Amino acid sequence: MDTVEGIKVFVAAVQTGSFSGAAGRLGISAKLASKYMAELEARLGAQLLHRTTRRLGLTAAGERLMARAPDWLDQLDEMTGDLRETGRGLTGVLRVASSVAFGELHVMPLLQRFRGPHPALQVDLRLSDRFVDLAAEGIDLALRIGRLDNSALIARKLGEVRLLLVAAPGYLDAKGMPGRLDDLSAHACIRDTNLRDGAWNLAEAGVLRRIEARGPYAVNSPRAARDLAVLGEGIALCPDYMVRSDLAEGRLVQVLCETAGPSLDIHAVHLGQRRLARRTRALLDFLARDRFDGYLG
Fold first, then answer.
1. Residue 196, pLDDT score
2. Domains of the chain, with CATH numbers?
3. Angle 278-290/108-115 helices, nearest 10 degrees?
């Protein structure tokens, strides 16, 4: 048994909470993952995991190994990558997380460009509108829009997103164009529940106002909010990247253009307790050079 493979199974099992999760991450069967784990423990002469029907727990020996193994595996990957033929470029698996709409519209094309010179690199893009646990799911880099809550993560700002009030021309013809923020109370507002408190915080004449958006639709997707606005169901507060082409082609009209919608920062975040693998550092530098606000503008 290759000790390195056994340590990979051990780390993946701890991070995912199960041998089936480790097997899925490593592309092997759960039976083989369990076998590698047993052989590693036999070789080391120490039990590393407590196994129960519901979860895996670390023994004292397992805690000591887990404190060093992820960083060691990253260093091994970097060292072997440096020794490979230069023309092959970056190798291994790069796991990236993003929200669904932003990931589909902007992150995926950027990853395609990044991977172009690195044919041996595999990209695993995880799209979800929930906040993923980077450690539990083995994510190398996550792209997040808005306020960051987890101080244990290292963050690097990549750009900004503006939120715009938009509506379909047909809706505005029927209901009228609002002239000021107070007029929104007479309109159907399409609420995106991803905005933390559900309210719209908008500035009018330099004064920040909290607007209680009310209407028949509440959705947890900026794409769904945009789609409903295009269908004439009301006024939506949408990220600029989501509605840029709609505004240019007349499917949507910006409402209250003088009103300053909030700007949300785009960050790349990663775990702070480990050094970054070479491929992760390269992607982070690539994204920082690209600048999302310039790309979206």
1. 62
2. 3-69 (1.10.10.10), 86-157+265-296 (3.40.190.10), 161-263 (3.40.190.10)
3. 120
